[in-house]
Amino acid sequence: MKYVRMPIELESPEQLGYDTIRYNLSESSVADRRLGELNLKLDDILLCYGDHRGAPDLRGLIARTGEGLSADDVLVTAGAAGALFIIATSMLQAGDHIVVVRPNYATNLETPRTIGADMSIVDLTFETGYRLDLEAIEAAIRPETRYVSVTYPHNPTGVMICEDEMKALVALVERKGTCLLFDETYREMTSGPMLPVAASLSDRVISVSSLSKTYGIPGIRIGWLITRDAALMETFLAAREQIGISGSTVDEYIAYVALSQRDEWLAFNNARIASAFAIVKDWIASEPLVEWIEPSGGCVCFPRIVPSADVDLAGFHESLYSRHQAYVGRGSWFEQDDRHFRIGYAWPTEDELRKGLAAISAAIRDNLKG
């Protein structure tokens, strides 16, 4: 495998330096939390090799977020990114076929490319409201397709599907005899009914999630994959062991404490997200040069500069960062035109969010042509 760094990582705020950005609207999570907020006592943790699948009590908590799942259906990984890497490298060889619904999280595209997989892309578009296109997915599936890759609530648009659409997608992969990779990192961030854990619906579904986005603790690198297919889980476990044997006992303990406080955290986060969302919605309504498909899940949106505006897009992104000290996720992070940009609205303070949105408006006008 020949690795290539992805734009979303090359241009990430942690690589640029957080101290170079005053109004950071590029983050796709709630605000990061400090260790002290968890009221932890770490002195008694034995720094041994842990259970290769992840701590049993942590896996039990994760399993209980879905119906009919057990701890044996869960494999703890180094973030959702680690889970996605394990899945791709375990299930794909050069030439194997997959279907990827795009936009998608960059790893779901780049790792299969690195392996040399044959990818059929099903593009979701602004003009169709980024709605799931089951007919297009079905047309793309071949007898040899290894899996279909989707993410909902959708990253980067925040668009949701309903449970009936989810079940129709699961029924489709079952009928076609393939698998479904369902990246559900934002599942617990929704203003409406929460979708079920996708892997609870079928043994042909692999769910992936983490504590990074919804819980604001990406520093502990805890994610997971869930599958009810025991043979597939054994393969994933073998990959996990060859990559790193087991996870950090410290990280897994912190994750257990955080997930034990799930109800309190989600209530706090949902209130913060709702308040920040209202700010973005008001800005969109008042900004004639920007339009969006209004999100209904997650903590991100993917607006675009209106097509009728003749804007120097490279200049827009450069002046937004260099002149206005604000930052967004470029469309190119998601293999889209840079007229699009991702805004993460739950990470900054409300004052930073308002000033960052004002900076976007100013940077667009700075770069209007003619």
UniProtKB/TrEMBL annotation:
It is an enzyme of class 2 (transferase). Its cofactor is pyridoxal 5'-phosphate. Its EC number is 2.6.1.-. InterPro entries: Aminotransferase_I/II_large, NHTrfase_class1_PyrdxlP-BS, PyrdxlP-dep_Trfase, PyrdxlP-dep_Trfase_major, PyrdxlP-dep_Trfase_small. One of its GO terms (molecular function) is transaminase activity. PROSITE patterns: AA_TRANSFER_CLASS_1 (PS00105). Pfam families: Aminotran_1_2. Keywords: Aminotransferase, Transferase. It comes from the Bacteria. The keyword Transferase applies. Residues 48-360 form the Aminotransferase class I/classII large domain. The keyword Transferase applies. Belongs to the class-I pyridoxal-phosphate-dependent aminotransferase family. This is Aminotransferase. It comes from Shinella granuli.
